[in-house]
Amino acid sequence: MDTELQQLTEAFSQFFKVEHAIAINIQPTHSPLPDETQFQAAIPEPFLLAGNIGQLNISALRSLQRLGELAEELAHYLQQQAHKLDLLLHYVLRQQDLAEYRYQTLSYGGAGLTFLAREALVPLSVLEIKLFLADNAGAVFCYGQVLSCEPDANGYLTQVVFMRIRDEDRELLVRASLQQQARQLKQKAAER
Q1: Alpha-carbon gap, residue 90 to 84, rounded angstroms
Q2: One-character DSSP codes across 119-169
Q3: Which of 20, 47, 107, 191 is the S-S candidate for 141 at Cβ 3.0 to 4.6 Å?
Q4: Which residues of 147-183 are buried (b: 16+ CB within 10 A; e: fewer)?
Q5: Max Cα separation, the chain?
Q6: DSSP state of 98
Q7: pTM above 0.90?
Q8: For the residues 94-110, what does the mean pLDDT come to?
């Protein structure tokens, strides 16, 4: 058990984390960590759709860079169309947000997240996780394991390491955390 916790600790510190609240669903599974095939089969369709649309938007905008002058107007049009799809997809994804499993992160990044649980969770236990990024930036479905769970004045301070997550979803979380950090730095600079 100590070796497994040490590995989780190393994995948790591999990526930058930003202190920021985003909506999440945390559901204990009471079963072992699924293998990669089981994980891929468990991903709800709206989460797969969200990832595919995001990748298509990025590749379409990259292609436009080669067009020259007309690219700017066409990129603007495509961004508006993408925004419409994002709004619709955001609505569909919100249907996946179940109130009984809803929490807010204290911090998150590419390796994991921290949140206040209502009850103690056992280290190494497996959790089904849904992350709903702010501003229609997307949503992620993954599995994680509890690294630590300590009593806190408002619940149980819990650290979770992502153990089954698609590479594109990890990239999305890394981008979202870096963008949030940039916003926080701009806000701090404006307050000075």
Answers
A1: 10
A2: S---TT-EEEEEEE-STT--EEEEEEEEEEEEEETTEEEEEEEEEE--HHH
A3: 47
A4: bbbeeeeeebbbbbbbbbbbeebbebbeebbeebbee
A5: 60
A6: -
A7: no
A8: 94
End-to-end CA distance of the chain: 47
Q: What is residue 48's predicted lDDT score, i.e. its pLDDT?
A: 87
Give the separation between CA 14 and CA 45, rounded to whole angstroms.
29
**pLDDT on residue 56:** 64
Per-residue model confidence (pLDDT) at position 73 = 77
What is the model's pLDDT at position 65? 66
Per the document, the length of the chain is 192
Instruction: Point out which residues pair with 25 in neighbouring strands.
Output: 102, 130
Angle between helices 167-191 and 45-64 (to 10 degrees): 70
